Amino acid sequence: MAGKIVTNRSTGSFDFELVEGDPDQLRTVVASPNQISPWIDPATIKLRHRIGRGPFGDVWLATQHQATEDYEEYHEVVVKMMPPIKEDNIKVVLDKFIDLFSKCQGLKGVCSLHGISIISGKVSIVMKFYEGSVGDKMGRLKGGKLSLHNILRYGIELAQGIMELHSKDILVLNLKPSNFLLTENDGAVLGDLGIPYVLLGIPLPNSDMARRLGTPNYMAPEQWKPEVRGPISFESDSWGFGCSIVEMFTGIQPWCGKSVDEIYNIVVKKQEKPQIPSGLPPAVENVILGCFEFDFRSRPVMADILHAFKSSQDAVLRDGVWTGVTSRTLVDKSSGSGYTEWFLSKDHLQVGDTVRSRKPPNLCKLENMGIPEGIVVGLDCDSDPTGFVLVRVHGIHDPIRVHVSTLERVTFGLAPGDWVRLKEEDKNLSPVGILHSIRRDGIVAVGFIGGETLWKGNSSELQMAESYCVGQFLRLKPNVFSPRFEWPRKHGGEWATGRIHQILPNGCLVVKFPGILTFGNENDNFLADPAEVEAVSFNSCAGVIKKYQHLEDFHWAVRPLLIALGLFTAMKVGLFVGKKMGRSKVKKRNHAVIPCDVQHADGQNGGNAAWLPPKMANMFPKTTSR
């Protein structure tokens, strides 16, 4: 595939023709207009040599030739060649890059993008050349470790750059030390910008790349097949940032020496976390630990990370005690709420907000709500979002003073964590998902199976759905014959009943089947679409047989245990009956024998028939003594 370019300078739009085989058969692809055209004529780019290879293509050092009537210049640039893209998706990729290019103009914490081109038949991103990266600097140091001062300094600069991109709704998704480029003043900026963002949602010919977005060692769990285990979000970058900081401290890449499949098993299936080095400032250690929460809703956002790093800039460790750090009240999961401080700090209450008691995680319904519904009428301290608020509750005269961690904001009848259903179904999405956020104007963000990122719309497009929680038993609905995910069957061919083991942020249910015995490396975790299943309980099972079948679903050992118990009971009953029958026969025999009242030692009455059995006695006539 080659490209022939025609650029419209007045509007900033451009189009190019794709040559596929026969040069006479041309197809024109038009990119969206923009004030500054990002298109670079491939004839002005001369590749010199390849300087790197990553999961999203090759990186080349190149020379860009710029000429006008007044001057002629040559600049060293870096060309990132993207992987092969299907012809039908090229326009989408170009439109997304134009949007990225426009949003990145004037940002200080990211590398300078020059534009986009098609070189050697591949879509290529052209960017400014930087002399080195944080990864290169680590490679030149003994042990590969950076000093605490440099880590905090780089961390602050990088967090600010990531926040700039997040404010433009851009996800990085490929944070790692080799992509942290160094400026002439030893400052850190984000490099390799935009590749995963541009490829997000684009079908790729490489199936291995299609299931993940990023470099495996630094990828969050939801980045592995995000349409199933996602969605990806701003907090996905928090995981990559945490991995990068850990590597700067230790000099060792997370999951070093592991294959892609091994990393997948460790991070996604086993849900293990990178090891945090000891001796970190408390605020930094706490925020990095938060970066590795499996559920991204429990992770800190970049503003939290930036605050932790800035508060530790003057930290000094003396005699095992950190000085020069600012303190912050932490809310630990073990405090009783079940939520991390990062989760609780993402929504600040305001006067006039409608609130209700926050239900514990993994609980379908809250039976006894302290505050079923109330209005915030006062804040104890405006500067402390984790403090107390005054809530007016209907039926109670005076406002109640309540800690904000025990409350959740309700807007248009919805609160984050609610199960919702789309009123108009999308064929690419499961109709049932989990609400992640709702603004006061009704704009919502929802996680649905099938969506790589959060679905955004209006609360009027949603309705409440049946909620699920960990521990519930599930079965496929009767009208589901071909489920979205694999679902096991019983020996008789009937769909098996499983138990919810985990709920992913998009509502995808991780289900185990304790009623099915597995061996060795057999898969014991299955996924389920919440729209295709229904809850099962003893109360919903009609009849004794159904209730017994549900009892078998609790564990595969129920049936053999009941069989063994039945056999043991049968044996006990048999032995008991046998003994009873034996005793009965002995008693009957004893009753049939008539004892002799008088026996003479000399045998004079030996002919008397009284001692004989009845039948024998009739055979001998009675005799009298003379």
Characterize the structure shown:
- By secondary structure, the protein is an alpha+beta fold.
- It has 14 helices and 28 strands.
- Strands 4-5-6-8-7 form a 5-stranded antiparallel β-sheet, covered by helices on one side. It has a 5-stranded antiparallel β-sheet with strand order 17-16-15-14-18, with no helix packed on it.
- A hairpin with a 6-residue loop joins strand 1 (2-7) and strand 2.
- Helix 3 packs antiparallel against helix 7, helix 3 (148-167) packs antiparallel against helix 10 (302-311) and helix 9 runs antiparallel to helix 10 (302-311).
- The longest helix has 35 residues, at 558-592.
What is the fold's blueprint, element by element?
Layout: E1 2-7, E2 14-19, E3 26-30, E4 45-54, E5 57-67, E6 72-81, H1 90-104, E7 113-119, E8 122-128, E9 132-133, H2 134-139, H3 148-167, E10 180-182, E11 188-190, H4 195-199, H5 207-210, H6 226-229, H7 234-250, H8 260-269, H9 282-291, H10 302-311, E12 316-318, E13 321-323, H11 341-344, E14 354-357, E15 374-379, E16 388-393, E17 400-403, E18 407-410, E19 419-422, E20 432-438, E21 443-448, E22 455-458, E23 462-464, E24 473-476, E25 498-503, E26 509-512, E27 525-528, E28 533-536, H12 543-552, H13 558-592, H14 614-617
Protein name: Protein kinase domain-containing protein
GO molecular function: ATP binding; protein kinase activity
Keywords: Membrane, Transmembrane, Transmembrane helix
